[in-house]
Amino acid sequence: NAGVTQTPKFRVLKTGQSMTLLCAQDMNHEYMYWYRQDPGMGLRLIHYSVGEGTTAKGEVPDGYNVSRLKKQNFLLGLESAAPSQTSVYFCASRPTGRDEQFFGPGTRLTVL
Amino acid sequence: KQEVTQIPAALSVPEGENLVLNCSFTDSAIYNLQWFRQDPGKGLTSLLLIQSSQREQTSGRLNASLDKSSGRSTLYIAASQPGDSATYLCAVTRYNKLIFGAGTRLAVHP
């Protein structure tokens, strides 16, 4: 099992550009999450999904959209990137009935 | 609003020392508390999970305690090793969501 994978690992954008971050998990987990981590701060929840076809807002959802068309994939979109979205983005998943979340390696995004 | 605080923000100790990392949270209505390890440039690895009804969990040289009434948890690392150098994050679960502290950056030097 590859676990949770994230694509790409690094990306540099210019202000106003758009992009999509892909999270994939091969563990058949129901729940998936997108977090961002900024220096000196803990991870903050952007959006999450409790199953295929569902999405919900987290703590800091503004400027992001998500989709969960397939159970194994959770996409995070930035329609018009801003420098404030420079961060490291982590995806996580967990199965129903268990509390432990499994994290991907992260995507480092810089918006100039 | 639930807030999670970790003290100290950074810690440097010589190899072999026993150490304690602290985590506090403002709302005791939590489902569980987890401790994670994060290596530079890597994702998070779950170390210990304590359910709200439990007082402590142990795994090898690691022991985590939970005192819900006081809103505190500690992570005890025995006989620290250079390989323990990493950032340690605590997070509480509430309404199926994790709320993280900012972490303690630990350096264990030979």
Describe this structure in words.
By secondary structure, chain A is mainly beta. Chain A has no helices and eleven strands. Chain A has strands at residues 4-7, 10-13, 19-25, 31-37, 43-49, 56-57, 65-67, 73-78, 87-94, 102-103, 107-111. In chain A, strands 2, 4, 5, 6, 9, 10 and 11 form a seven-stranded mixed β-sheet that branches. In chain A, strands 1-3-8-7 form a four-stranded antiparallel β-sheet, with no helix packed on it. In chain A, a hairpin with a 6-residue loop joins strand 5 and strand 6 (56-57). The radius of gyration of chain A is 13 Å and the shape is globular. The mean pLDDT of chain A is 95. By secondary structure, chain B is mainly β. Chain B has no helices and eleven strands. Chain B has strands spanning 4-7, 10-14, 19-25, 32-38, 44-51, 56-59, 62-67, 72-77, 86-94, 97-100, 104-109. In chain B, the strands form two sheets. In chain B, strands 2, 4, 5, 9, 10 and 11 form a six-stranded mixed β-sheet that branches. In chain B, a hairpin with a 4-residue loop joins strand 7 (62-67) and strand 8 (72-77). The mean pLDDT of chain B is 94. The interface between A and B is medium-sized, with 23 and 24 residues.
Task: Using brief descriptors, characterize the structure shown.
heterodimer, B: 110 residues, mainly beta, 5-stranded antiparallel beta sheet
SSE topology:
The complex is a heterodimer of chains A (112) and B (110).
Chain A: E1 4-7, E2 10-13, E3 19-25, E4 31-37, E5 43-49, E6 56-57, E7 65-67, E8 73-78, E9 87-94, E10 102-103, E11 107-111
Parallel strand pairs in A: 2-11
Antiparallel strand pairs in A: 1-3, 3-8, 4-5, 4-9, 5-6, 7-8, 9-10, 9-11
Chain B: E1 4-7, E2 10-14, E3 19-25, E4 32-38, E5 44-51, E6 56-59, E7 62-67, E8 72-77, E9 86-94, E10 97-100, E11 104-109
Parallel strand pairs in B: 2-11
Antiparallel strand pairs in B: 1-3, 3-8, 4-5, 4-9, 6-7, 7-8, 9-10, 9-11
